[in-house]
Design a protein that fits this description.
Layout lengths: L1 H57 L18 E7 L9 H18 L3 E7 L1 H9 L6 E2 L9 H16 L5 E9 L5 E9 L25 H76 L1
Parallel strand pairs: 1-2, 1-4, 2-3
Antiparallel strand pairs: 4-5
Membrane topology: Peripheral membrane protein
GO molecular function: ATP binding; proton-transporting ATP synthase activity, rotational mechanism
InterPro entries: ATP_synth_F1_ATPase_gsu (IPR035968), ATP_synth_F1_gsu (IPR000131)
Length: 293
Amino acid sequence: MAEKLNVLKARIKAVTSTHKITKTMDMIARSKTAKILTIEQGMRPYTQKLNRIVEELSHSDMDHLHPLLSPKKTIKNIILFVITSSRGLCGSYNTKILDEAMERIRHHYRHGRTVELHVLGKKGEVYFEKQNIPISRKYPRIDEESTFDDCATVVQRFMHDYVVDNASRVEIIYTRYYTRVVHIPKIKSLIPMIPDEEDIEGRKVKKQIDYLIEPNIDDVLKEVVPLAIKTYFYFMITSSFLSENAERAIAMRNATDNAERLIEDLKNKANRARQEHITNELLDIIGGSEAIN
């Protein structure tokens, strides 16, 4: 009986230690989520409006005026940029995005296209290496602290590859943040920009193409189009990191709650075992006393 009690005490100690870790990670994830959410909410209206203008121009008779708005006649080479996490303990975040990426890769292979895979995040790197899918470029320097300029450098290479016909399309697979509990993997054509059925906030888009551009449309598009592409790429990076930390906060909160319930259950078992041990000792004493008498 004493041995059973010692085992329960050891388990309580181990689970309590785990509880402290998960609770701390939950607090850290919540703090990071709040910080990144402030950034994401601040850039959302600007990104949404700029993105909508460029996407509508791409479906007007102005698309021929800028090479980044003009779709290629033949789709052969795809640059696929997949955003995963570098750390675990974030629920099904990586599983969902990697499943989406694999399905997209198979889709392009079925259509006879080549895929140049770019991966952000160690989890994605490890996964694709196990799948024997070659990774063209990794991005270890892009993280939650990366700035707009850091991300713009990446997009600059994509735009160059598209203009010189090294790529027929640049696609981004990322996780869009809607609420603290809703994060959905998305596929976005970054270059050329193709309109979505819904905007950044998940509302149905009403297409309205009616622009009067002054003083010179060529100069305006030359500045606006690259800026819009860079801005939306940075938004997708931010949304993915936001979703990752929100998923981690949920996972750690669930783990903390489970640990608390397990600790309570183990304490109840330990108390019963202790009472049973004391009762047995009392019975032994009483039995011995009666035998002497």
